[in-house]
Amino acid sequence: MKLTIRRGTLREPGPDLARLPVAPDLTGISIAEGLRAAVAFASIILLESWLHWPPLLTMALAANLTCFCDIGGPIRPRLRALLAFAGLGGVFWGAFGVMEGYGPALVLPVALVVIFGCTFARIWGVPAQTVGNVLVVVLCLALDRALSVEQGAVVAAMFWAGGLWAAFLTLVVWRLHPYRPAHAAIGGVWRGLSRLARDLHRLSAERRGTDQVTDPAVWEAHARGHRRAVRDAIEAARTLVLDLARSRARLSERNARALIRLEAAEQLFGVMIALSDYLERATPVQQAQAARLLRLLPPVLKILSRAIRRDRPVDLTRVERALARAKPASDADPALRRMAERILDRVRIGAKLSGPEDLAGGGGLAGAPAPPWRETVLQPLRANLTWSSANLRHAVRATVVALPALAVTFWWPGPFTHWLTITVVLTMQPFYAATWQRALERIGGTVLGGVIGAVLAFYATSPAILAAMMVPLSVVGFAARGVSYGTFIACLTPLVVVLVELVEPGHSSWEIVGMRALFTVLGGAVAVLAGLLLWPLWEPGRVRDALRTALQAHARYAEAVVAERLGDGPASAAEAAARAAGLASNNLEAALSRALQEPRRRGRSRIEAAMVADATLRRMAGRLAILRHEPEPADAATWRAWREWLNVALTATAAGDRLPPKPEGADSAVFGRIAAQVELLAGTLKRAGIGGREAA
User: Which residue would you say has higher pLDDT here, 674 or 664?
Assistant: First the structure.
């Protein structure tokens, strides 16, 4: 039986781990961000075309680059990032412009230290990584022309003026809704749940009325694609909401609602995992009993997702009617009715923006204090000051490869050579697979966008027309920023082509496109080769570590679930363990995806075994989720014995040791499938030679 499953995108990983996630996500289009960037940048360009004062071009470029550094979210963290960039950017441009007159012996060592710091800054999160990347661009632009001390001071002052103008426009005059990113992220979680439910409906419909058993690979692909996507979306939304809560002195009503919606979505996700495990082995009668729920649930979740993203109320009467119709009949399977009741209850909470008093605190987010600076600054630094750190190796690699690229800037001066260094440093990523993906996107986007920009510039008959083009090109370029990296580069390159022709009128648009394409292709090739040859961290070893972590996380999950059912532990502990197990599986799949995209063929059998283990762990998580909806334990002693066995067995599996004998008792059949999955795991890993000292 053939089943079509939605392909992965940048924000929704697909079931095929070997496929590069480069497909665009059109929901990332932001016209408001494009308009704001156009006003910040193009307004100064138009002013310069009227006044003909060249320092304004520096101010315009500073405003443009500052907009790159704004990734949205709470005001205070954004303000810190924008002011840090504006301050450092002005210093870098002025200082390196002055130092260039003293020759490469002075400039190159200092530039390499700065590049190392900028590329290593990713250890402090995405905002720091973004600021670091754009500062590398500033450094490269500063080396285009030597400056006197007076000129350097003017350039620095104009850069500060442009950065402050963009920050003022961004955070004061034209403030994008600070809650909007959180609303979009939480809406994305509910949209992912809608897709998960729709795929369950399709899978169930294909089996309904037949005795045919669906290929297990189909359900594995469903779990790998949809569960991974929803878990990633939940964690992204959690980060945004937590940052928003910490940025304010008190927990606002809107933030509390966001927390409740997110917590309800995560609890709904756990029940739907149990439902998928139930449906995989349901009888035709049970499939028919679940049909109405599966048919009505996806559109309700989609409506709720749209309302959350737009920050608008839903029609509660309409939602309640749909939920009433979706409820299984009273004679349906009790396990199905328990899951359906919990699903519908979570949907009601999401729709009404209210729920049990302890719901908002279930995720541990409400009123969370900001961590001390030693934890946020020094702890990541200490953790990454080791050669086993991918981030440290990446920073060293980028610094080493930047040296010859910067040397080209001195030996072959011109308005285009800085593109080589920029491409090399920004294309290179900590992992080879990510570098390869970034190189493809950057080269493809540059070529496509360059052709478009050359055509536009060719038909521009005067500098005034070129300046006027900056407004629509800025809107298009920044509006596409959240779609995908390749799309963003394709939409941004026409702006670069027109800008260079405006600033450097002696060059034709086709020359600009040709030089940009040349240096982009060359820089991308250098970055890929550097990722292959300079201190790479190959993924097979990291897959073993991720697999061991996943086994340990699922052992804790099993223990927490059994403790919850026996009354020995709270439900919140089981929820936290489920989250940790889901994150561990996602990390394992991320390592597997990178390993499958690497050119080396060694260790392929172990990677395949790890993929089998990953699918088995997903199935185990589904069975543990449904175990939370089983009838009350008839034999508490047997359940405790199984809890101990699962912990010991999964630990033995990770170490490559022999499994202990299984317990016996009245409720042993409840754990039969989980035990079979553990035995499959142990056999697979033993045959592939994974475990023991090598895994440790």
Answer: 674
